[in-house]
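Feature request, filed as a ticket because there's no other form

It would be nice if the structure record came with a short human-readable summary line next to the tokens. Right now we just get the raw output. Example of a typical job, pasted below so the devs can see what we mean:
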Amino acid sequence: MVALVGLVTPGPAHAGIDVCAGLGTATLAAPGLSVPPNWRYTTFSFTLNGAICASREASVTATGTVSGACGSSSGQGVATVSHPHTAPQDHKFAFVSEGTVWTLTGEVTGVATATEDPNDTPSCLAGNAQRFFLDGSLSFTHNGCTRGTSTTTKYPTHTCV
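Raw output as currently delivered:
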């Protein structure tokens, strides 16, 4: 399952950020990931169905590529946030992972933990792991602006670059 929990207050869809929470599944295409030194290159996808983004229901999907092994990988992709009655927003991102910690940069930023689905067959140890659960805090930026809430003062912030 994928759980995304936001720490900032979202702004409007045309400028600022979306912060989304929901559950889903992260899946890697065969051959999946194995343990080092067996480095692999494959594709991934994840979906959050019925996610809550900016206090409204949304769908969040992502696709991309990953290379490396269980516990040490990197990749890039595009996440799409779709709200009812508005155009979908695409967000390019990159990530690196060490152990179970994923650090995301680009138009999707944050930190998440990735743990292998215990029912995944085969597993990282056996080779070819393809299902992972994610849990973290991610924000989706667009139009070069971010809007949030200061963690120290609790007042709104807005930054454009």
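Something like this underneath would help us a lot:
Confidence is low (pLDDT under 50) at residues 1-15, 155-161.
The chain has no helices and eleven strands.
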